[in-house]
Design goal:
It is found in: Cytoplasm. Belongs to the aldehyde dehydrogenase family. Its EC number is 1.2.1.9. This is NADP-dependent glyceraldehyde-3-phosphate dehydrogenase. By secondary structure, the protein is of the alpha/beta class. Helices cover 38% and strands 22% of the residues. Helix 3 (92-103) crosses helix 4 (107-132) and helix 9 (279-291) crosses helix 10 (308-322). The longest helix is centred in the first third of the chain and has 26 residues, at 107-132.
């Protein structure tokens, strides 16, 4: 149960504490932020509403701790990360319980997220030792006009204080995808978890505490974005921001100043289906890609662009599978669970109403109870409908019938998003050509869009993000190059 056993230090009364200087503390504000259970729509947990002054103290502690951590041998950093990973996996049950109650993630998927996060941390430790343990040696005479009078030694050094802001849908996994690379690279880390998912993150942070990381190296501040959000992202003590979320990231990028940014900001992932595609494979991937976790994934299939000649057959196959989806509470491992908030449900409903008014074919009756929305396939969607372009982040999926591959590529590229896309065809040559033409960070061939495995590069174009994620890319992004040049009194050539 949340906040009990080894986690009893992280809560006092009914309010979970925030973490700084190696301790769990109550905010001087005396205020808390309520976390609403999406299923019951009642307050499930409460977390501290930290103040700006507390944020200042957290970042100051982080700066001091980072200087010492940077002197810690790579093998020791990796050893502590492996220990944290083992503790996290050992305590997967209470953390998964938080995910079920905070974000209505199905129980089995919640456990999977925690275990996957432990594996990510361990892989990160190993990868960090490999890539940070190597430097570069350059000689000056490789450039025209120079003798060999200079030796240049380059290495990767930490940035300083990394601010990590994960989203509600994978609060633990997308937090550790930032924490692991930051720590192995020698940075300190300040975590600002999403409100929905904050308690799961606090439990995860306690696993790092139990692993014995140095005081002040890792901090976790909770509170209202309106009060500490901009203050954190614009803080002069922050040296790097890694953010996963929505439109807020665009605002952050405009305000952040001269700090490296790593951002993933959503997508409208298109699924292009050609005439020769295996329609059973397509239907299975549309269900997995479009409706798992109720469509609340950046890499969910968000629009189906299918050739007219096979559209009827595909829609029939998808509808047959939609009818088998289990709708209900996350505790029962339902396929479709309540979306994260009432405002999200209202937004999704607005997209459905717009499509209805403009003549889309509803393959199922629109049904909603509270935050629970039944899966809905919309056929004959046209480009003038909002659902053709906007990201629903819910179990509602549009089908746009196309008459040529070029039409599908055009629709995909006309979006302001460019995260992922997928192509279904038996012709690999066509698949490669279409993939090259699609303006997305990743294209999946004959499979639904997906983030992972976690060591794969993950990036978006256009409004979908800045930079690239994935363990190796994240480690590199959270370091900078330092050069030391040795100047020789006269040219020197090995064996010369």
């Amino acid at each position: 149960m949340a906040g009990t056993g080894v986690f009893e230090d992280i809560i006092e009364g009914e309010v979970f504490k925030y973490y700084t200087d190696g301790e769990w503390k109550k905010s001087a504000s005396g205020k808390s932020v309520a976390i609403i259970n999406p299923t019951t729509r009642t307050t499930q947990y409460k977390v501290q509403a930290c103040t700006q002054e507390e944020v200042n103290k957290v970042i100051e502690s982080s700066k001091i701790a980072q200087k010492q951590w940077a002197k810690t041998p790579l093998w020791k950093r990796a050893e502590l990360l492996h220990k944290a990973a083992a503790i996290l996996k050992e305590h997967k049950a209470p953390i998964a319980e938080c995910l079920v109650k905070e974000i209505a993630k199905p129980a089995k998927d919640s456990v999977t997220e925690v275990v996957r996060s432990g594996d990510l941390i361990s892989y990160c430790a190993e990868e960090g030792v490999r890539i940070l343990g190597e430097g570069k040696f350059l000689v000056s005479d490789s450039f025209p006009g120079n003798e060999r009078t200079k030796y240049c030694l380059t290495s990767k050094i930490p940035l300083g204080v990394v601010l990590a802001i994960p989203p509600f849908n994978y609060p633990v996994n997308l937090a550790v995808s930032k924490i692991g690379p930051a720590l192995i690279a020698g940075n300190s880390l300040v975590l600002k978890p999403p409100t929905q998912g904050a308690v799961a993150c606090l439990h995860m942070v306690h696993c790092f505490h139990l692993a014995g990381f140095p005081t002040g190296l890792i901090s976790c501040v909770t509170g209202k974005g309106s009060e500490i959000g901009d203050f954190l992202t614009m803080h002069p003590g922050v040296n790097c921001i890694s953010f996963t979320g929505g439109d807020t990231g665009i605002a952050i990028s405009k305000k952040a100043g001269m700090v490296p940014l790593q951002m993933e900001l959503g997508g409208k992932d298109a699924c292009i289906v050609l005439e020769d595609a295996d329609l059973d494979l397509v239907a299975a991937n549309i269900i997995k890609g479009g409706f798992s976790y109720s469509g609340q994934r950046c890499t969910a299939v968000k629009v189906i662009l299918v050739m007219e000649s096979v559209a009827d057959a595909l829609v029939e196959k998808v509808n047959a599978r939609v009818a088998k989806l289990k709708v209900g509470p996350p505790e029962e491992d339902s396929d479709i669970t309540p979306v994260v908030s009432e405002s999200s449900a209202n937004f999704i409903e607005g997209l459905a109403k717009d499509a209805k008014e403009k003549g889309a074919t509803f393959c199922q009756e629109y049904k909603r109870e509270g935050n629970l929305i039944w899966p809905l396939l919309l056929d004959n969607v046209r480009p003038d409908m909002r659902i053709a372009w906007e990201e629903p982040f819910g179990p509602i999926l549009p089908v746009i019938r196309i008459n040529s591959v070029e039409e599908g590529i055009h629709h995909c590229n006309a979006s302001n998003f460019g995260l992922q896309g997928c192509i279904f065809t038996k012709d690999i040559n066509k698949a490669i050509l279409i993939s090259d033409a699609m303006e997305t960070g990743t294209v999946q061939i004959n499979s639904a869009p997906a983030r992972g495995p976690d060591h794969f590069p993950f990036q978006g174009l256009k409004d979908s993000g800045i930079g690239s994620q994935g363990i190796t890319n994240s480690i590199n992004m959270m370091t900078k190059i330092k050069s030391t040049v040795i100047n020789l009194p006269s040219p020197s050539y090995t064996m010369g």
